[in-house]
Amino acid sequence: MNFKTQQTLVGLQIAVSVPCQIGYIYLVFHSGIFTGPAADDLASRIAFALQNQLFALLVLLAMIGFIAGARPWASDVIDGNDQATRLAIQVRIQRNTLEQFILLAVAHLALATLLPAHLLAILPALVSLFIVARILYWIGYSIDPIYRSFGFVATFYPNIAALIWATILVLQARM
User: Fold this and answer.
1) Where in or outside the cell is it found (predicted)?
2) 3.10.580.10, 1.20.120.550, 1.10.3720.10, 1.10.8.100: which CATH number matches 42-174?
3) How far from the centroid of its chain's Cα atoms is residue 169's Cα?
4) 118-172 pLDDT, tens per residue?
5) Could you give phi then psi for residue 116, rounded to 5 degrees?
6) This prediction's pTM
């Protein structure tokens, strides 16, 4: 595949991913499937964010388990070699998922302390998108790295939005 074709494919994945993210969050948030915490004190808000993050962390756990499970079956990776071709892509997928999870965790904890109570249900909606997007990233990247963009963007853009939103709320709270 030539470079121009690769650029077009990545651009198409991004162009499709963005409206899918927006539509997903809109539908999930407004469906009422998720609610905010039962109480509206700071401890309940932080507990709510942490409990939701647990579900996002399960994707990372699955990736760690996948890599660990592959090690005993191949001589080039049984010794812990994460540069072996067999696992190199899986290790990169896992590393990026950890990076994305850190962004999600910090942003969601900040948002949990600052959002109005009626908007807190956005956090589990965003976590559910994170889970779906990370699985799509994992599948796409495993097929061919050129197919990772949809899932990456569906994780990274919401994380950027959450971090910007949290930063704005922190600045407003300090004024």
Assistant:
1) Membrane
2) 1.20.120.550
3) 21
4) 999 999 999 999 999 999 999 999 999 999 999 999 999 999 999 999 999 999 9
5) -60, 150
6) 0.94
| 82/59 Cα distance (integer angstroms) | 19
Domain spans of the chain?
A: 42-174
Residue with tokens 């994380």: 159
Two structure tokens written together for 141: 């990247």
- The DSSP result for 108-126, as a single string, is HHHHHHHS-GGGTTHHHHH
Please say whether the beta carbons of 175 and 167 come within 8 A.
Answer: no
Q: What is the SS3 assignment for 74?
A: coil
127-142: buried (b, 16+ CB within 10 Å) or exposed (e) per residue? bbbbbbbbebbbebbe
